[in-house]
Amino acid sequence: MSLTWSHAFVNVKHLEAMVDFYTSALGFHVNDRADGVAFLSQLDDEHHQIALKEDANQGAETSRVGHFAFRIDSLEEVKELYNALSARNDVGKVVPITHGNTWSIYFHDPERNGIEVFCDTPWDATQPFAESWDPNLSREELESYTTSLIKERGDLKPNPRTHVEFGRV
Asked: Which domains does the chain have, with CATH numbers?
């Protein structure tokens, strides 16, 4: 699994627990450390995608992040990550949401920062658009379900990011 994105800087209460989560659950590696900050990335040409800075004064239930969004290549990877994260004790409920143009999963890291991991669908959809989807559906069933949701809201149009024919991503 390879996540695509730039970076975020996040204040955390427990730096080592957060570094462990991002490395073991999401496949990041530590590129650098300095002054209580860990710089993590999955990309060789990016120094960091996430910088974590320990801030012991941060409130217990406070997150300084709405969510981080990461794109991955395929629906199969989204489903695999859904299953892997659902089995972890340090991750809250993993919620599958389609935005019409993506199939996403939302979850929280151990300090309740929101994360979205998604793949693109073949379609575009007017936003906001957020409907649940079942990760146990086959690709064909999920495509049918998603197209019906989009058609209920308006025109079914190709996703400009994917440039593929309907029914194939």
From this structure: 1-56 (3.10.180.10), 65-169 (3.10.180)
